[in-house]
């Protein structure tokens, strides 16, 4: 244990989550109430106790991990507690090489969990619990079916099952948190589902903090963290960003992430104002990997040098993006609305500062709101948006955002358009203008995804028109390998402005997810420039530059993080960050609300020359090598 603690201490680790029970269902402490579950090959029957003693003696915190919905021992011995699909199936096959057969916490399994957690408190001084795999899932077990019938829901209808599952999971968290706090009212609690989505807000009182699990080289990818973190940080709780040391995903034993990749992921977490967590897995022989912690130590040493410029920092933002997940239920626990990837990429690539928000956020704190592609608007949200615009707020709306939840008509005249129907042609073509697509050639640009046909209301202005193709491609009428060329004939409006609202008829953000046409990005950014002519940040860097503006009010300082690491598609499965490519002579311009006393690099403490021009702070960074504050 001394070697274990020494390696962690030298790697600048100040907190490590250790296992009470794993997905295989085995205990790593000497359980008295479930001795049959104690790991059969554990030489030290009290491994967890030894770990806690060794780590806490060095000032290292030890939250305790236990699994919830994945437990192979319980799966084998109590199959009646499984989540059951609508056809009577388990969530994984009996002979699959996996422990991912999900258990339902609406069964008597919950009583086992409560007893298990109670025993942990009886044996240890528990300061924090990480409860893993706590997700909403469609279940037709006999307990869930009975519960649905009591609530006059129909178990044979998926929508009713999901409605019940959402409420049941809220009730489970309430029940379990009350149970935990009966032992220690101050115990830190986190329920992990691999993603932070709007359903988390409904149970936020059960969390002490949030943890954004996002292994970019694993199933999450490099688009997940920058998107989900901008929502998680709006929920009023401290959060931890969690990546992994693995080359790919969890359980990738004896693999090592590239140092540049780990540095990037950790500094990205800092830039978003999160605490840092790196997932690892202990070898069954109990010997910790020195090579792993040499790598982790290099990253955490860099963190230590800049921590004081990160503590208590909050993001400064201009733009709020409404989160479609609030309106669309998904049962994939790590999934998220892909349209958000499109919005995030475009805004990050342009240096814009933004949050991803839900309808419970304070809209007034944002100068511009974006409703990307698929935000249906009910009467309550329509009133919120109208009040926001009436008070000077700006709005960008695309495609079917703004339509009522159950009908294809706009929620009001706020958007300056009347819905006619799906566009009669697809693909069709957008003709740039002097305001939208102003840097593009004044020729047709293909819009691959089908848009909608709308008519401008009185007083609205068409900024760009759609040009029709000769015909839609069918087996009877086709031209060349892909879509039909432009006919040159104007068909219907493509971009419309009414006051402080700009509407795009095409799903521009989903289109950027699919194949990132440069013209899509340019027309969106032109619309933003029209509505937000003085953004918080401008820079002369490439689109691969990530910039985040934060503020430490207590210290009266703005903190600008700059990151330049480029994930590359070097393999079929994984995005790779290998090389750090420096940037030189990077010009920065910020619109801040305070007088500036000095500009300096951190942690080097080198003062930079600066100017105030038209109320904007202007300065140049000679060299950016990976990450710079």
TrEMBL record:
User: A biological process (GO) annotation for this entry?
Assistant: carbohydrate metabolic process
Where do the Beta-galactosidase trimerisation domain residues begin and end? 345-415
**Which top-rank group of organisms is this from?**
Bacteria
Task: Return the Gene3D superfamilies for the record.
Answer: 3.40.50.880, Glycosidases
The UniProt entry, under InterPro entries, shows: Beta_galactosidase_Trimer, Class_I_gatase-like, GH, GHL6
Which molecular function GO terms apply here?
A: beta-galactosidase activity
Q: What is this protein called?
A: Beta-galactosidase
Give the originating organism. Answer: Vibrio ponticus
């Amino acid at each position: 244990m001394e070697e274990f603690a020494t390696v962690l201490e030298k790697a600048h680790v100040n907190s490590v989550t250790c296992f009470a029970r794993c997905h295989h269902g085995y205990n790593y402490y000497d359980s008295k109430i479930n001795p049959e579950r104690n790991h059969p090959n554990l030489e030290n029957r009290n491994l967890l106790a030894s770990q806690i003693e060794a780590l806490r003696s060095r000032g290292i915190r030890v939250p305790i991990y236990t699994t919830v919905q994945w437990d192979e021992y319980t799966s084998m011995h109590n199959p009646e507690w499984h989540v059951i699909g609508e056809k009577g199936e388990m969530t994984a096959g009996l002979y699959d090489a996996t422990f991912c057969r999900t258990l339902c916490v609406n069964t008597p399994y919950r009583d086992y969990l409560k007893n298990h957690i109670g025993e942990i408190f009886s044996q240890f001084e528990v300061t924090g619990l990480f409860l893993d795999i706590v997700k909403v899932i469609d279940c037709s077990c006999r307990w869930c079916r009975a519960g649905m019938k009591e609530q006059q829901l129909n178990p044979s209808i998926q929508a009713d099952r999901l409605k019940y599952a959402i409420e049941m999971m809220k009730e489970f968290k309430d029940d379990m948190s009350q149970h935990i706090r009966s032992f220690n009212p101050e115990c830190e609690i986190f329920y992990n589902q691999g993603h932070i989505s709007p359903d988390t807000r409904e149970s936020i009182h059960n969390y002490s903090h949030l943890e954004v699990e996002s292994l970019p080289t694993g199933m999450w990818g490099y688009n997940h963290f920058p998107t989900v973190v901008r929502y998680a940080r709006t929920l009023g709780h401290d959060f931890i960003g969690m990546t992994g040391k693995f080359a790919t995903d969890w359980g990738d034993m004896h693999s090592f992430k590239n140092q540049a990749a780990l540095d990037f992921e950790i500094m990205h977490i800092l830039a978003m104002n999160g605490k840092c967590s790196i997932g690892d897995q202990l070898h069954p022989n109990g010997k910790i990997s020195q090579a792993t912690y040499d790598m982790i130590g290099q990253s955490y040493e860099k963190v230590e040098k800049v921590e004081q410029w990160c503590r208590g920092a909050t993001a400064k933002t201009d733009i709020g993006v409404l989160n479609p997940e609030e309106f669309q239920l998904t049962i994939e626990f790590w999934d998220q609305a892909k349209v958000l990837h499109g919005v995030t990429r475009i805004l990050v690539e342009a240096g814009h500062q933004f949050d991803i928000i839900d309808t419970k956020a304070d809209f007034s704190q944002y100068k511009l709101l974006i409703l990307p592609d698929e935000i249906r608007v009910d009467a309550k949200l329509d009133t919120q948006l109208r009040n926001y615009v009436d008070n000077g707020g700006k709005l960008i709306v695309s495609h079917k955002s703004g339509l009522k939840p159950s009908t294809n008509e706009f929620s009001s005249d706020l958007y300056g358009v009347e819905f006619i129907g799906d566009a009669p042609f697809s693909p069709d073509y957008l003709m740039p203008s002097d305001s939208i697509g102003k840097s593009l050639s004044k020729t047709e640009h293909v819009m691959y995804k089908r848009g909608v046909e709308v008519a401008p209301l009185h007083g609205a202005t068409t900024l760009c028109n759609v040009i029709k193709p000769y015909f839609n491609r069918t087996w009877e009428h086709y031209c060349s390998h892909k879509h039909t060329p432009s006919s040159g004939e104007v068909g219907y409006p493509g971009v419309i402005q009414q006051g402080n609202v700009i509407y795009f008829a095409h799903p521009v953000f989903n289109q950027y997810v699919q194949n990132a046409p440069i013209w899509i990005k340019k027309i969106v950014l032109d619309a933003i420039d029209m509505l937000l002519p003085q953004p918080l940040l401008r820079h002369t860097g490439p689109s691969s530059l990530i910039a985040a503006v934060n503020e430490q009010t207590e210290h009266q300082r703005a903190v600008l993080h700059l990151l330049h690491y480029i994930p590359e598609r070097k393999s079929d499965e994984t995005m790779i960050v290998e090389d750090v490519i420096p940037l030189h002579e990077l010009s920065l311009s910020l619109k801040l609300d305070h007088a500036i006393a000095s500009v300096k690099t951190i942690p080097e403490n080198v003062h930079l020359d600066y100017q105030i021009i038209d109320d904007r702070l202007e300065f140049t960074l000679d060299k950016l090598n990976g990450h710079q504050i």
